[in-house]
Structures are given as C-alpha cells and as structure tokens.
Amino acid sequence: MTFAWKAAGLTYNRYLAVAARVVRRSLKEEKRIVAERRGQQELRFAKWSNGKQGEIQNLAAANAQAAVESAATGGH
Amino acid sequence: MNSLRIARAALRARPAALRAPLQRRAYAEAVSDKIKLSLSLPHQSIYKSHDAVQVNIPAESGEMGVLANHVPSIEQLKPGVVEIIEEGGSSKRFFLSGGFAVVQPKSALSINAVEGYPLDDFSPDAVRAQIAEAQKVVNGGGSEQDIAEAKIELEVLESLQAHLK
C-alpha cells in the first residue's frame, strides 16, 4: 500500500511535519501562538568531503529539492 | 542417586505449588485488567504509565480498540482521535496529528505523536478556513509536492472537522 504523498516524493518525516503544522494552525488563539513556535525550523548544514566544507544549505530547502528529484525518478 | 534427588525435589515442590495458586490467582486477575498507557509528544508527555481499561486508536488499517493483554503489535496511526476509557467509565479524547502506537507484552501501550490536543482546544472556524485554502491548492496548478501537501492537510482537516461536530 503506497501512500499518495510517497508517490509525489514526500518522505514520512515531511508528512508528519505537514500534518502537525495543520493541527497547530487549527487551535484556538492562545494555544496556537505557543504551538506555532514549535513549527519553526532554521537549520543549515554543509557536506564535507576530503576535509573541505561544501556549500552551506538550508535544510528545509534541500529537503524540498530532494522531494522533487525523488518524485521525478519515480519515487521509492 | 539422581532419581532420588529429583523425587525429593518433586515432593518438596508439590505442596508449595498446591498452596500458592489459591492466593495468587485472585491477585493476578485484579492487577492485569488494565493497560499501562504512555501517550507522548516530542515536547510533552500527556500520560506516563497511566492506567486505562480500553484505548481506541485510529490505526491506518482501521479503528481499533486495545484492551489489557492485547497481542504485541505496532500500528501506524492516521490523523484522528485517541479515546482513553478509564476505570469508572469516564473517557478522554485527544486528536493526534499522526504517529505510531506500540503494544508491548504485559499490557504496555505506548502512543507517540507529533501533536496532540483535547478536542476542546480546536477552533472550527480555523479548520473551515484551512479546508477552503487547501482545496484551492489541490485544484490549482501548483507543483506536485504542493498538491500532495495540500491533500495531506485536507485529510487531517476533514478528520478533525468530523470529530469537532
């Protein structure tokens, strides 16, 4: 049983993140403000090879790009 | 000589075996009736080894109820409501955004989710507004990933809306 989002290239992690984001936005005012902070992520990384640091990328952007690529190659 | 030792041990063991069950059986039944539920989110532990009589979980394979002494299993959860029925009949309901439920031997049930709130914490207006927006994205011409994400959102929102009625 393949999920629709898997075929589109999304990972399970991304699926959980999207579902959590929706739940947070559906809350009543005060709880929502506290919860929205949990959804923010600002994480950067760089690949190292041969002792040299590669280009610094934003994790969210890199994941989005990987999703597009894995959907193009048929997704698995 | 070995057989003598075994015979003696058997004679010693038997009286004890005859005595114990009468006391032990009553105690064992009283304790094993309940589930030890742990409901955790990454940022908060809603229940830690809490006693419950029955827990209803929204598994991907269908709604299921877990009672004490359930066979060990791992179930992926779809976004939905977990209902915890305690001794005395009172029940609490939480809407979870998705995760896993693991039943371990000795009636230990562990539910992990990313977000989970009591139904009273949700705003039906916010849900309605988000459904409208998500439907616009699904019918629009965005990227495949945007549409897939909007479909996930719709699945969660429709489940939430149904439970809020």
Please, could you describe this protein's structure?
Chain A: Belongs to the eukaryotic ATPase epsilon family. Chain A: One of its GO terms (biological process) is proton motive force-driven mitochondrial ATP synthesis. Chain A: One of its GO terms (molecular function) is proton-transporting ATP synthase activity, rotational mechanism. Chain A: This is Mitochondrial ATP synthase epsilon chain domain-containing protein. The complex is a heterodimer of chains A (76) and B (165). By secondary structure, chain A is of the alpha+beta class. Chain A contains four helices and two strands, in the order αααββα. In chain A, 53% of the residues lie in helices and 17% in strands. Chain A has a two-stranded antiparallel sheet. In chain A, a hairpin with a 2-residue loop joins strand 1 (44-49) and strand 2 (52-58). The mean pLDDT of chain A is 87. By secondary structure, chain B is an alpha+beta fold. In chain B, the strands form two sheets. Chain B has a five-stranded mixed sheet with strand order 2-1-9-8-5, with no helix packed on it. In chain B, helix 2 (124-139) packs antiparallel against helix 3 (144-164). Chain B is elongated, with a radius of gyration of 24 Å. The chains are: A alpha+beta (76), B alpha+beta (165). Chains A and B meet through helix 1, helix 2, helix 3 and helix 4 of A and helix 2 and helix 3 of B.
Q: Main β-sheet of chain B: number of strands, strand sense, barrel status?
A: 5 strands, mixed
Structural class of chain B: alpha+beta
Distance between the termini of chain B: 77 Å
Question: How many E strands of chain B?
Answer: 10
State the assembly state of the protein chains: heterodimer
Number of H/I helices of chain A: 4
Instruction: Tell me what portion of residues of chain B adopts beta-strand conformation.
Output: 35-45%
